[in-house]
Amino acid sequence: MESPTIVTDAAAGGDRILARDLGRHTGAAVLVRGWVHRHRDLGGVCFVLLRDRSGICQVVFDSAPTDGAGNPVTLESVVAIGGVVAANRKAPGGFEVQARRLEIISAAAPELPLAVNQDPSQLSLDAMLEHRMVSLRNPKTLSIFRLQAAIVHHFAEVLRGEGFTEIKSSKLIGSGTEGGTGLFAVDYFDRTVYLAQSPQLYKQAMVAAGLEQVFEIGMAYRAEKHDTPRHINEYVSLDVEMAFIDSEHDLMDLEQRLLAGMFAGLAEDCAEVLEAWQATLPTAAEVAAIPRITHDEARAAVAEATGRRVYDINPEGERVLCDRAAAEHGIGAVFVYGYPRRKRPFYTYPSDGNRTMSFDLLFRGQEITSGGRRINDYATLVDSMRRFGLDPDAMSDYLSVFRYGCPPHGGFAIGLERLTQTILGLASVKQASLFPRDRKRVRP
Q1: What are phi and psi of 327, to 5 degrees?
Q2: pTM of the prediction?
Q3: What backbone phi and psi angles, to 5 degrees, belong to 367?
C-alpha cells in the first residue's frame, strides 16, 4: 500500500460517501470525511476510525498519519481521506478504506477535556455537562438526540393522522394560567412578563376558535427549585388538546393510540439506538393493555405494598404502581385518574364529590403525562378561580375564551426529555437535554 499524500490546502478529491455506504463501493476510489474518532498504531500499519453522521468506518494507513509538519493527527481533528474500498470482515461494517490522500481540514487541540471515544457511563454527569460542546460528540450520547428527534417526528405524524393541527404559541405571557406561581419573570420594555409554563391558554383558544384538535411542540419553563434526576427548569413539552370529549377516558384512549404509533415508529427508525442503550419498547398490544385505576385505588395499592399510610403518590409510589402493572398486565405503565381537586389546576373539570376528570400516566416508575378534561363553562370557571383564591379580573384574556362559547374539551402534555429518559433508562433527565437548565446551570 502506498503512503498517503498529505494535503493541507486542497480537498482530497472525489465525491464524498458516508461510512455506512462503503460496502456499495468495493474496489472503487472514494472520499470520506469526518472526525478522527480513534487510532491504533501497530508499527507497520495504522488503523484510524473515522466518524461521520452515519457511523464509523475504518481507514488503513501504512504508518501513523501526520500533518504537513510531521505532527501526529490528533483525535477529533476533522479530515478528508481519499482511498480505495476493500473488504475486511474485522472492520466496522465489514469494509475499510485504504488511504491514498489525507487532508486535515481542521486540527483539534491535542488535549481533549474528556474522552469522546469511551462509553459515557465512565464519565460523571457533571463532567459531561461542564464540557457539553465536546461530550455531545460521543456517539452513544449523540444517539440520545437521534431518538429524541424521532420521538418528536412520530408524535406529530400520529396526531396529524388523527386530524390534529400543529400550532405555535408565544412563550412570553402577561400572567400564568395556573395561578402565577413557579414563573420566571422577564423584563419586557417597561413592564414585567413571564416565561410560559405551558401553552394551556393558547391550546384552549384554538380549540374554541374551531380547529377542535391541536398540538404543539415547544419550550416550557418552570421556576421550581428542584434538584432531582427527574426535573429541569426548561424542557420541551409535547402538548395535545381536543374538543367534544366526555371525560378523561377519551384522552387516555387517544394517548394509547398515540404511544402505540410512536413506539412502533421508534422501533423501526431507532433500532440501533435502542440496542446501544439495551432499551426496549412496549408493543401495540402491551400499550392497549395499560390498566386504569382511580387515585384512591392507587393510594390503597401503594399503602398495601409499602405498609405505610399514603396521602399522595410520590416517586416511590409511582415505581410500586408500575411494578404491579408489569406483573399483572405485562407492561410497566398505569393510568391513574380521578385526582382530588386540590391536586389539580383550577380549570380541571370536577366530577363526583371532590374528584376531577384528570389523569396521570406513569411509565416505568415515572410520571410522563398529566392531563384531563377542562372546565368549558364561563360561570363555572369563574367560580373555580375564586375557590382557588384567584382574581378573575386578572385573567380576563383567559376567560374570554369561554365567555363567547367553548366546546367541552381537554388535553395532556408529555415532557420530551423525561420520556426520552424513561425509554432509554437514563440516570438523569439532564442527559436527555442538549443544554440543560437547572437551579445552578445556565451554560453553555
Answers
A1: -70, -35
A2: 0.93
A3: -75, 120
